[in-house]
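Pasting as-is:
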Amino acid sequence: MANILLPTENLLYKQNNSYTLLDAPEIDDIIAHINEEHLDELLGFLSAFTSIPTAELNHVDAQITAIYAEGIALQTYPKHLEQPLVSQDNNLRDQAFFITFAAPITHPDDLQTQYILLKQRADKKLGKKTIKLTKQVFEVRSSYNVSKNMLRLELSMPSLNDAQLNDDVQLRNTNGALSSISVPINEAGYAYLFDLEHNATTKALMTDSIDENKADDDAVNDNEKNNVRSTRPHCYYTLRKAWHTDDGIRAWVDVFLHGDTPGGNWAQSLQAGDTIVTKREFPEKVEHLRDGQAVLIVDETSMPTAARLLELWNNPKPPLIICVTQDIADQSYFDDVKIRSRVSSSDCIEGVDSTKGMKTVLHITANQTSLGQDLATVIDDKLSDYVSRHAIQIDKVWGALEASTVKAVRDKLRARFDLSRADVIVKAYWRHTA
Protein backbone atom coordinates (compact mmCIF):
# COMPACT_ATOMS: atom_id res chain seq x y z
CA MET A 1 0.00 0.00 0.00
CA ALA A 2 1.40 3.38 -0.96
CA ASN A 3 1.97 6.08 1.61
CA ILE A 4 1.28 9.64 0.45
CA LEU A 5 3.15 12.25 2.44
CA LEU A 6 3.05 15.97 1.77
CA PRO A 7 4.85 18.33 1.72
CA THR A 8 8.39 17.37 0.72
CA GLU A 9 10.01 18.42 4.00
CA ASN A 10 7.79 16.07 6.01
CA LEU A 11 8.45 13.19 3.65
CA LEU A 12 12.19 13.53 3.91
CA TYR A 13 12.04 13.96 7.67
CA LYS A 14 10.02 10.79 8.15
CA GLN A 15 12.13 8.79 5.71
CA ASN A 16 15.39 9.83 7.31
CA ASN A 17 14.11 8.68 10.69
CA SER A 18 11.99 5.64 9.80
CA TYR A 19 13.38 4.20 6.57
CA THR A 20 16.72 2.74 5.57
CA LEU A 21 18.40 4.67 2.77
CA LEU A 22 20.14 2.50 0.15
CA ASP A 23 23.62 3.93 -0.33
CA ALA A 24 25.32 1.29 -2.51
CA PRO A 25 27.66 2.87 -5.11
CA GLU A 26 25.39 1.91 -8.02
CA ILE A 27 22.20 3.44 -6.61
CA ASP A 28 22.80 6.91 -8.09
CA ASP A 29 23.23 5.39 -11.56
CA ILE A 30 20.06 3.30 -11.10
CA ILE A 31 18.06 6.38 -10.10
CA ALA A 32 19.42 8.36 -13.05
CA HIS A 33 18.56 5.52 -15.45
CA ILE A 34 14.99 5.11 -14.18
CA ASN A 35 14.36 8.86 -14.22
CA GLU A 36 15.64 9.15 -17.78
CA GLU A 37 14.28 5.97 -19.35
CA HIS A 38 11.19 5.02 -17.34
CA LEU A 39 9.13 8.17 -16.78
CA ASP A 40 5.96 6.40 -17.89
CA GLU A 41 6.43 3.79 -15.17
CA LEU A 42 6.87 6.45 -12.48
CA LEU A 43 3.70 8.21 -13.61
CA GLY A 44 2.01 4.81 -13.58
CA PHE A 45 3.03 4.32 -9.94
CA LEU A 46 1.48 7.69 -9.08
CA SER A 47 -1.69 6.89 -10.99
CA ALA A 48 -2.07 3.44 -9.42
CA PHE A 49 -0.99 4.07 -5.85
CA THR A 50 -1.75 7.70 -5.00
CA SER A 51 -4.75 10.02 -5.02
CA ILE A 52 -3.15 12.59 -7.31
CA PRO A 53 -5.85 13.58 -9.83
CA THR A 54 -5.51 12.31 -13.41
CA ALA A 55 -5.96 15.85 -14.69
CA GLU A 56 -2.86 16.90 -12.74
CA LEU A 57 -0.84 13.86 -13.83
CA ASN A 58 -1.34 14.96 -17.43
CA HIS A 59 0.63 18.12 -16.68
CA VAL A 60 3.51 16.84 -14.56
CA ASP A 61 6.61 14.73 -14.84
CA ALA A 62 8.11 12.73 -11.98
CA GLN A 63 11.47 11.56 -10.73
CA ILE A 64 12.84 9.33 -8.02
CA THR A 65 14.67 11.37 -5.40
CA ALA A 66 15.83 8.45 -3.23
CA ILE A 67 15.52 4.70 -2.87
CA TYR A 68 15.04 3.11 0.53
CA ALA A 69 14.90 -0.49 1.63
CA GLU A 70 11.18 0.01 2.16
CA GLY A 71 10.29 1.85 -1.07
CA ILE A 72 10.97 4.75 -3.41
CA ALA A 73 10.55 8.50 -2.89
CA LEU A 74 8.98 10.28 -5.88
CA GLN A 75 8.64 13.95 -6.60
CA THR A 76 6.45 15.59 -9.25
CA TYR A 77 7.20 18.81 -11.12
CA PRO A 78 5.62 20.66 -14.06
CA LYS A 79 6.27 19.27 -17.54
CA HIS A 80 9.00 20.72 -19.76
CA LEU A 81 11.26 21.44 -16.78
CA GLU A 82 14.47 19.44 -16.60
CA GLN A 83 14.72 19.86 -12.83
CA PRO A 84 12.02 20.25 -10.16
CA LEU A 85 10.98 23.86 -9.61
CA VAL A 86 9.97 25.04 -6.15
CA SER A 87 7.64 28.00 -6.49
CA GLN A 88 4.76 29.10 -4.30
CA ASP A 89 3.25 30.78 -7.35
CA ASN A 90 3.22 27.62 -9.44
CA ASN A 91 -0.24 26.02 -9.65
CA LEU A 92 1.41 22.63 -10.14
CA ARG A 93 3.52 22.90 -7.01
CA ASP A 94 5.99 20.07 -6.37
CA GLN A 95 4.56 17.15 -4.45
CA ALA A 96 6.40 14.29 -2.79
CA PHE A 97 5.20 10.71 -2.48
CA PHE A 98 6.48 7.49 -0.98
CA ILE A 99 5.63 4.20 -2.72
CA THR A 100 6.32 1.08 -0.68
CA PHE A 101 7.79 -2.16 -1.99
CA ALA A 102 5.97 -5.46 -1.52
CA ALA A 103 8.75 -6.46 0.89
CA PRO A 104 11.74 -4.52 2.27
CA ILE A 105 15.02 -4.92 0.44
CA THR A 106 17.67 -6.79 2.42
CA HIS A 107 20.37 -6.63 -0.26
CA PRO A 108 20.94 -4.20 -3.17
CA ASP A 109 20.57 -7.11 -5.59
CA ASP A 110 16.91 -7.37 -4.50
CA LEU A 111 16.10 -3.91 -5.86
CA GLN A 112 15.40 -5.09 -9.41
CA THR A 113 12.99 -7.77 -8.21
CA GLN A 114 11.10 -5.37 -5.95
CA TYR A 115 10.91 -2.72 -8.69
CA ILE A 116 9.50 -5.30 -11.13
CA LEU A 117 6.93 -6.43 -8.56
CA LEU A 118 5.95 -2.80 -8.04
CA LYS A 119 5.54 -2.34 -11.79
CA GLN A 120 3.47 -5.52 -12.05
CA ARG A 121 1.13 -4.31 -9.29
CA ALA A 122 0.72 -0.91 -10.95
CA ASP A 123 0.17 -2.33 -14.44
CA LYS A 124 -2.40 -4.80 -13.15
CA LYS A 125 -4.31 -2.05 -11.40
CA LEU A 126 -4.19 0.12 -14.52
CA GLY A 127 -5.14 -2.75 -16.83
CA LYS A 128 -1.84 -2.63 -18.76
CA LYS A 129 0.42 -5.35 -20.14
CA THR A 130 3.42 -5.90 -17.92
CA ILE A 131 6.71 -7.69 -17.49
CA LYS A 132 6.51 -11.41 -16.71
CA LEU A 133 8.91 -13.40 -14.55
CA THR A 134 8.18 -16.69 -16.28
CA LYS A 135 10.29 -19.37 -17.89
CA GLN A 136 10.04 -20.36 -21.54
CA VAL A 137 11.83 -23.26 -23.20
CA PHE A 138 12.35 -23.26 -26.98
CA GLU A 139 14.06 -25.76 -29.24
CA VAL A 140 16.42 -24.66 -32.00
CA ARG A 141 15.34 -25.89 -35.43
CA SER A 142 17.87 -24.06 -37.59
CA SER A 143 19.89 -20.87 -37.95
CA TYR A 144 20.88 -18.84 -41.00
CA ASN A 145 21.89 -15.32 -41.97
CA VAL A 146 19.22 -12.90 -43.19
CA SER A 147 21.79 -10.17 -43.86
CA LYS A 148 25.56 -10.11 -43.66
CA ASN A 149 25.74 -9.81 -39.87
CA MET A 150 22.22 -10.77 -38.77
CA LEU A 151 21.74 -14.38 -37.69
CA ARG A 152 18.20 -15.74 -37.53
CA LEU A 153 17.39 -18.46 -35.00
CA GLU A 154 14.32 -20.44 -36.01
CA LEU A 155 12.78 -21.88 -32.86
CA SER A 156 9.89 -24.16 -31.99
CA MET A 157 7.80 -24.87 -28.95
CA PRO A 158 5.26 -27.69 -28.52
CA SER A 159 1.71 -26.46 -28.07
CA LEU A 160 -1.20 -27.95 -26.17
CA ASN A 161 -4.16 -29.44 -27.99
CA ASP A 162 -6.33 -27.14 -30.07
CA ALA A 163 -8.91 -26.70 -27.31
CA GLN A 164 -6.25 -25.31 -24.97
CA LEU A 165 -4.17 -23.40 -27.49
CA ASN A 166 -4.12 -19.68 -26.67
CA ASP A 167 -1.73 -16.97 -25.62
CA ASP A 168 -2.45 -17.23 -21.90
CA VAL A 169 -1.91 -20.91 -21.07
CA GLN A 170 0.53 -21.59 -18.25
CA LEU A 171 1.83 -24.80 -16.70
CA ARG A 172 3.81 -25.77 -13.65
CA ASN A 173 6.94 -27.77 -14.20
CA THR A 174 8.04 -30.78 -12.14
CA ASN A 175 9.43 -28.52 -9.43
CA GLY A 176 6.23 -26.50 -9.19
CA ALA A 177 7.78 -23.38 -10.69
CA LEU A 178 5.59 -21.36 -13.01
CA SER A 179 6.37 -21.88 -16.67
CA SER A 180 4.55 -20.42 -19.61
CA ILE A 181 3.80 -21.75 -23.05
CA SER A 182 2.27 -18.48 -24.17
CA VAL A 183 4.02 -16.82 -27.09
CA PRO A 184 2.65 -13.49 -28.36
CA ILE A 185 1.66 -14.00 -31.98
CA ASN A 186 0.36 -10.51 -32.70
CA GLU A 187 2.57 -8.26 -30.62
CA ALA A 188 5.48 -6.13 -31.75
CA GLY A 189 8.62 -5.55 -29.74
CA TYR A 190 8.16 -8.40 -27.29
CA ALA A 191 11.51 -9.04 -25.61
CA TYR A 192 12.87 -12.15 -23.92
CA LEU A 193 15.75 -12.38 -21.46
CA PHE A 194 17.69 -15.40 -22.73
CA ASP A 195 19.66 -17.53 -20.29
CA LEU A 196 23.06 -17.80 -22.00
CA GLU A 197 24.49 -19.69 -19.05
CA HIS A 198 21.98 -22.53 -19.58
CA ASN A 199 23.64 -23.49 -22.85
CA ALA A 200 27.18 -22.93 -21.60
CA THR A 201 26.48 -25.15 -18.58
CA THR A 202 24.84 -27.79 -20.75
CA LYS A 203 27.89 -27.92 -23.00
CA ALA A 204 30.19 -28.11 -19.96
CA LEU A 205 28.19 -31.05 -18.59
CA MET A 206 28.38 -32.78 -21.96
CA THR A 207 32.14 -32.26 -21.89
CA ASP A 208 32.21 -33.83 -18.42
CA SER A 209 30.33 -36.85 -19.72
CA ILE A 210 32.75 -37.31 -22.59
CA ASP A 211 35.75 -36.81 -20.33
CA GLU A 212 34.66 -39.65 -18.06
CA ASN A 213 35.53 -42.01 -20.90
CA LYS A 214 38.97 -40.51 -21.40
CA ALA A 215 42.21 -40.99 -19.56
CA ASP A 216 42.75 -38.70 -16.56
CA ASP A 217 45.50 -36.77 -18.28
CA ASP A 218 43.10 -35.82 -21.10
CA ALA A 219 40.27 -34.65 -18.82
CA VAL A 220 39.14 -31.01 -18.80
CA ASN A 221 40.10 -29.38 -15.52
CA ASP A 222 37.92 -27.04 -13.46
CA ASN A 223 39.55 -23.89 -14.80
CA GLU A 224 38.94 -24.95 -18.38
CA LYS A 225 35.31 -25.77 -17.59
CA ASN A 226 34.85 -22.36 -15.99
CA ASN A 227 36.15 -20.81 -19.20
CA VAL A 228 33.37 -22.58 -21.08
CA ARG A 229 30.74 -20.68 -19.10
CA SER A 230 29.50 -17.41 -20.49
CA THR A 231 31.05 -14.18 -19.20
CA ARG A 232 27.55 -12.71 -19.37
CA PRO A 233 24.81 -14.93 -17.93
CA HIS A 234 21.87 -13.49 -19.87
CA CYS A 235 20.95 -11.18 -22.74
CA TYR A 236 17.77 -9.59 -24.12
CA TYR A 237 16.60 -10.29 -27.66
CA THR A 238 13.37 -9.29 -29.37
CA LEU A 239 10.93 -11.86 -30.65
CA ARG A 240 11.11 -11.08 -34.37
CA LYS A 241 8.00 -13.09 -35.23
CA ALA A 242 5.92 -16.02 -33.96
CA TRP A 243 3.15 -18.09 -35.49
CA HIS A 244 1.10 -21.24 -34.89
CA THR A 245 1.61 -24.40 -36.97
CA ASP A 246 -0.09 -27.78 -36.96
CA ASP A 247 2.58 -29.25 -34.68
CA GLY A 248 3.27 -26.33 -32.36
CA ILE A 249 4.62 -22.80 -32.35
CA ARG A 250 7.39 -21.39 -34.53
CA ALA A 251 9.38 -18.27 -33.74
CA TRP A 252 12.23 -16.19 -35.12
CA VAL A 253 14.85 -14.43 -33.03
CA ASP A 254 17.34 -12.30 -34.97
CA VAL A 255 20.76 -11.77 -33.37
CA PHE A 256 23.21 -9.14 -34.61
CA LEU A 257 26.73 -10.57 -34.76
CA HIS A 258 29.35 -7.94 -34.01
CA GLY A 259 32.71 -9.22 -32.90
CA ASP A 260 33.50 -11.34 -29.86
CA THR A 261 30.37 -10.80 -27.75
CA PRO A 262 28.63 -13.16 -25.30
CA GLY A 263 25.30 -12.96 -27.14
CA GLY A 264 26.77 -13.42 -30.60
CA ASN A 265 28.99 -16.28 -29.50
CA TRP A 266 26.01 -17.94 -27.82
CA ALA A 267 23.81 -17.63 -30.91
CA GLN A 268 26.49 -18.96 -33.26
CA SER A 269 27.17 -21.95 -31.00
CA LEU A 270 23.57 -23.17 -31.07
CA GLN A 271 22.76 -26.27 -33.09
CA ALA A 272 19.52 -27.89 -34.22
CA GLY A 273 17.99 -29.76 -31.30
CA ASP A 274 19.49 -27.51 -28.60
CA THR A 275 17.09 -26.07 -26.05
CA ILE A 276 17.26 -22.41 -25.10
CA VAL A 277 15.68 -20.93 -22.00
CA THR A 278 14.24 -17.50 -21.26
CA LYS A 279 13.90 -16.09 -17.74
CA ARG A 280 11.86 -12.94 -18.20
CA GLU A 281 9.75 -11.21 -20.84
CA PHE A 282 8.19 -7.82 -21.37
CA PRO A 283 6.25 -5.87 -24.02
CA GLU A 284 7.86 -2.91 -25.74
CA LYS A 285 6.34 0.57 -25.30
CA VAL A 286 4.84 1.31 -28.71
CA GLU A 287 1.23 2.27 -27.91
CA HIS A 288 1.92 5.95 -28.71
CA LEU A 289 2.56 5.05 -32.37
CA ARG A 290 -1.09 4.34 -33.17
CA ASP A 291 -1.73 7.79 -34.61
CA GLY A 292 0.14 10.70 -36.13
CA GLN A 293 3.25 10.73 -38.29
CA ALA A 294 5.81 8.48 -36.62
CA VAL A 295 9.51 8.02 -37.10
CA LEU A 296 11.39 4.85 -36.08
CA ILE A 297 15.11 5.19 -35.36
CA VAL A 298 16.92 1.87 -35.21
CA ASP A 299 20.24 0.12 -35.51
CA GLU A 300 21.03 -3.57 -35.94
CA THR A 301 19.92 -4.42 -32.39
CA SER A 302 16.47 -2.89 -32.83
CA MET A 303 15.79 -3.61 -36.50
CA PRO A 304 13.91 -6.83 -35.52
CA THR A 305 11.55 -4.78 -33.34
CA ALA A 306 10.89 -2.30 -36.14
CA ALA A 307 10.37 -5.09 -38.67
CA ARG A 308 7.62 -6.64 -36.58
CA LEU A 309 6.14 -3.20 -35.93
CA LEU A 310 5.80 -2.70 -39.67
CA GLU A 311 4.12 -6.07 -40.17
CA LEU A 312 1.60 -5.25 -37.43
CA TRP A 313 1.39 -1.51 -38.13
CA ASN A 314 -1.85 -0.09 -36.73
CA ASN A 315 -1.65 3.50 -37.90
CA PRO A 316 -3.10 4.86 -41.16
CA LYS A 317 0.11 6.79 -41.75
CA PRO A 318 3.22 4.73 -42.58
CA PRO A 319 6.30 5.54 -40.49
CA LEU A 320 9.53 7.10 -41.60
CA ILE A 321 12.46 4.83 -40.68
CA ILE A 322 16.03 5.89 -39.95
CA CYS A 323 18.26 2.82 -40.01
CA VAL A 324 21.83 3.03 -38.69
CA THR A 325 24.15 0.15 -39.59
CA GLN A 326 27.87 -0.39 -39.22
CA ASP A 327 28.02 -2.32 -42.50
CA ILE A 328 26.18 -1.17 -45.61
CA ALA A 329 25.48 -4.84 -46.42
CA ASP A 330 23.05 -5.04 -43.46
CA GLN A 331 20.82 -2.33 -44.91
CA SER A 332 19.05 -5.01 -46.96
CA TYR A 333 17.37 -6.30 -43.76
CA PHE A 334 14.17 -4.34 -44.40
CA ASP A 335 13.93 -5.17 -48.13
CA ASP A 336 11.50 -8.08 -47.70
CA VAL A 337 9.57 -6.64 -44.75
CA LYS A 338 6.05 -5.65 -45.76
CA ILE A 339 4.06 -3.02 -43.94
CA ARG A 340 0.56 -3.96 -42.83
CA SER A 341 -1.98 -3.51 -45.63
CA ARG A 342 -4.10 -1.06 -43.59
CA VAL A 343 -1.77 1.67 -44.82
CA SER A 344 -2.98 3.24 -48.04
CA SER A 345 -0.46 3.81 -50.80
CA SER A 346 -1.76 7.39 -51.06
CA ASP A 347 -0.52 8.01 -47.51
CA CYS A 348 3.05 6.91 -48.19
CA ILE A 349 5.81 9.46 -48.03
CA GLU A 350 7.13 10.13 -51.51
CA GLY A 351 10.88 10.20 -52.07
CA VAL A 352 13.91 8.56 -53.58
CA ASP A 353 14.65 6.75 -50.31
CA SER A 354 11.42 4.76 -50.50
CA THR A 355 11.88 0.99 -50.71
CA LYS A 356 9.54 -1.89 -51.39
CA GLY A 357 6.42 -2.42 -49.32
CA MET A 358 5.20 1.18 -48.87
CA LYS A 359 7.80 2.24 -46.33
CA THR A 360 10.45 4.93 -46.35
CA VAL A 361 13.90 4.03 -45.02
CA LEU A 362 16.70 6.55 -44.63
CA HIS A 363 20.01 4.73 -44.24
CA ILE A 364 23.00 5.88 -42.22
CA THR A 365 26.28 3.98 -42.12
CA ALA A 366 28.21 4.57 -38.89
CA ASN A 367 31.08 2.77 -37.19
CA GLN A 368 31.82 2.26 -33.50
CA THR A 369 33.75 5.51 -33.27
CA SER A 370 30.78 7.67 -34.31
CA LEU A 371 28.56 6.85 -31.33
CA GLY A 372 27.17 9.40 -28.90
CA GLN A 373 26.64 13.07 -29.67
CA ASP A 374 28.19 12.85 -33.15
CA LEU A 375 25.80 10.11 -34.29
CA ALA A 376 22.89 11.94 -32.67
CA THR A 377 23.75 15.00 -34.76
CA VAL A 378 23.93 12.93 -37.94
CA ILE A 379 20.50 11.44 -37.20
CA ASP A 380 19.01 14.83 -36.37
CA ASP A 381 20.42 16.40 -39.54
CA LYS A 382 19.24 13.51 -41.71
CA LEU A 383 15.72 13.66 -40.32
CA SER A 384 15.39 17.45 -40.34
CA ASP A 385 16.60 17.63 -43.92
CA TYR A 386 14.08 15.02 -45.05
CA VAL A 387 11.04 16.47 -43.28
CA SER A 388 11.84 19.98 -44.51
CA ARG A 389 12.15 18.80 -48.12
CA HIS A 390 8.90 16.83 -47.94
CA ALA A 391 6.97 19.28 -45.71
CA ILE A 392 5.91 16.77 -43.08
CA GLN A 393 5.54 17.13 -39.33
CA ILE A 394 6.80 14.42 -36.99
CA ASP A 395 4.31 13.64 -34.21
CA LYS A 396 5.73 10.48 -32.56
CA VAL A 397 9.15 8.89 -32.22
CA TRP A 398 10.24 5.42 -31.22
CA GLY A 399 13.83 4.28 -31.30
CA ALA A 400 16.42 2.02 -29.72
CA LEU A 401 20.14 2.60 -30.05
CA GLU A 402 23.45 2.57 -28.19
CA ALA A 403 23.24 4.17 -24.75
CA SER A 404 25.53 7.15 -25.36
CA THR A 405 23.49 8.19 -28.41
CA VAL A 406 20.05 7.81 -26.86
CA LYS A 407 19.83 10.87 -24.61
CA ALA A 408 21.33 13.20 -27.21
CA VAL A 409 18.91 11.98 -29.90
CA ARG A 410 15.94 12.24 -27.54
CA ASP A 411 16.78 15.81 -26.51
CA LYS A 412 17.41 16.97 -30.08
CA LEU A 413 14.17 15.57 -31.47
CA ARG A 414 12.02 16.81 -28.58
CA ALA A 415 13.37 20.30 -29.12
CA ARG A 416 13.20 20.22 -32.92
CA PHE A 417 9.62 18.95 -33.18
CA ASP A 418 8.30 20.35 -29.88
CA LEU A 419 7.26 16.93 -28.61
CA SER A 420 6.52 15.73 -25.09
CA ARG A 421 8.58 13.05 -23.37
CA ALA A 422 5.66 10.64 -23.78
CA ASP A 423 5.79 11.11 -27.56
CA VAL A 424 9.54 10.49 -27.86
CA ILE A 425 10.49 7.03 -26.62
CA VAL A 426 14.12 6.31 -27.48
CA LYS A 427 15.67 3.48 -25.50
CA ALA A 428 19.15 2.11 -24.89
CA TYR A 429 19.34 -1.43 -26.30
CA TRP A 430 23.09 -1.78 -25.77
CA ARG A 431 26.12 -0.03 -24.35
CA HIS A 432 29.53 0.50 -25.94
CA THR A 433 32.15 -0.79 -23.48
CA ALA A 434 35.40 -0.64 -25.46
